[in-house]
Amino acid sequence: MSLHSVGPAVLLGVVSVAVGCAPEPAAVVADLPIVDLSVGPAFPLDGHLGSANVAGGGMTFEELFEAGDALFHTSYNGDDGVGMLRLPDGTPFPRFAPRPAGHGFGGEISSQSCGACHRGAASGAAHTTVFSDPDNDGVPPFAVRSTTSLFGNGLVQLLAQELTEELQAIREEAAAAARETPGTPALRVLSAKGIDYGTIVASADPAGNLIFDVSGRQGVDPDLVVRPFGWKGNVTTVRSNTVGAANFLMGMQADELVWKLEARGVPGPDTDGDGVSPELTVGDITAMVVYGAAQETPQGVGRLVDLGMVQAPNAEERAAIERGRQAFDSAGCAVCHIPDLHLRNTVFEEPTGRAQGAYMDHFLAGRDPAYDPQRPVLFDLLSQSEEPRVEAHPEGGAILRLFGDLKRHGMGRQLADAAGPQPSITANFAPLEFEGQVVMIPVTEFLTPELWGVGNTGPWLHDGRAATLQEAVLFHGEDDPPAPGDPWRSEAQEARDAFGSLRAEDQKALLTFLRSLTTFSLPGS
């Protein structure tokens, strides 16, 4: 071998030996990176977590959070079961897919880790946009979705639970009034935390049999359960979000989903045919739920300054933020993007029996005795979540500076889903049915997205079509809208037009205010 055929590093070594130079000290060599030549699963824990060991305080909050952190950010490989080799109907599949596959599988296998799309657990960049296929035919048009931020999700679920409990109490009060006067309908306004969800009418016959007319409801499903996740407001819990994303975007199947597939006749336990089972156990998912629910709370820049986490903006910026806040209110944005709401209870439970069991998976509870609302994992988001944390309320609980209302609104033809209506999903991870029909969310309806964290979580809107906050505001309607009362007219048309009528400096100030609402993590967290 000639010296010309070797690389410069080898040549340097040959020359060093030739002139009698000593090799590099061992300490320097030890500081060099090590090439990982290991093979096998990338699964980050010593073993899968058993739900019985997790339940009822079997693991501390800190232990579960750290396990969930590792599970969330690990890049899984084929030995872990990432991807799919078989669809639910048995059709062969090449592990990953650039688009939804159809054949009973409406997702897009597009990632090997949760953290690859959720940057640190915040939102994803434009390239993390994903597709789903509501009609499961594998053919466009697909539903296009931007990756959302997970920051504050535990608080959002707690708020949804409290809203649902208030709506359930109104339904029960209407039922009691109807029974007192059989034959006379009892109409009640569905208002929770000041948010208007329409009306409900209860009627009773002389035997006390009840009929509820929920045709007057607004922005909530007929079962009156507030579903706070997904761009359509069609996902009930952090757990459902976790199980669904792991399966439909990564091909990492949770045991609890495998059991549901088996109940539908899909051969198991390796329902995706990749030779790996289990992929994610009930305990693994619980750890990921704890991690996701305990993420940082989005903050305004002003509170981050008060907490000593960032430098204060200069006087000009502070004035612009305040002027923008006033413009936000005067334009009518705060009607749906409600600036703050009072959360009474900050303790997150997994699983939970609250809201008459609407936020727990009853199928899973019947299959796994350790998934038990009497022995939940408990942690207080006011004191145990990642910093910066939610702000305490002087009357107890917390102030959620959410800038949202957890309610669906018609956003008009500009933003309508080309893929058609989509089903609402229960905590059992099944389509919601009401009076024998699957509840479908109209193409124009979307959940009001919370604006906490909006300043640095672009691109914006459900499909990432807005590259600036100004574009996002203007997409809330159109220049030549349908007439008032037309179902294709956006409910935000007037607010959008009011923004357009602002002076240029006030528009700029409003956008500065929005940019002051940020997701923020302490360095090194």
Mind explaining what this structure looks like?
The chain has 525 residues and is α+β, with helices and mostly antiparallel strands. Among the domains are: 154-213, no CATH class; 298-337 and 448-525, no CATH class. The protein contains 15 helices and 20 strands. The chain has helices at 8-18, 26-30, 51-54, 61-73, 153-180, 238-250, 255-263, 282-293, 301-306, 315-330, 354-357, 362-367, 469-474, 493-501, 504-515, and strands spanning 84-86, 92-95, 130-132, 143-145, 186-192, 195-204, 210-213, 299-300, 341-343, 347-350, 377-380, 391-392, 398-400, 408-410, 422-423, 433-434, 437-438, 440-441, 445-447, 517-518. It has a three-stranded antiparallel β-sheet with strand order 5-6-7, with helices on one face. A three-stranded antiparallel β-sheet has the order 9-13-12, covered by helices on one side. Strands 1-2 form a two-stranded antiparallel sheet. A hairpin with a 5-residue loop joins strand 6 and strand 7 (210-213). Residues 1-23 have low confidence and may be disordered.
* Strand tally: 20
Distance between the termini: 51 Å
Biggest sheet: strands side by side, in what order? 5-6-7
Which radius of gyration do the C-alpha atoms yield?
A: 26 Å
Please give the count of helices.
15
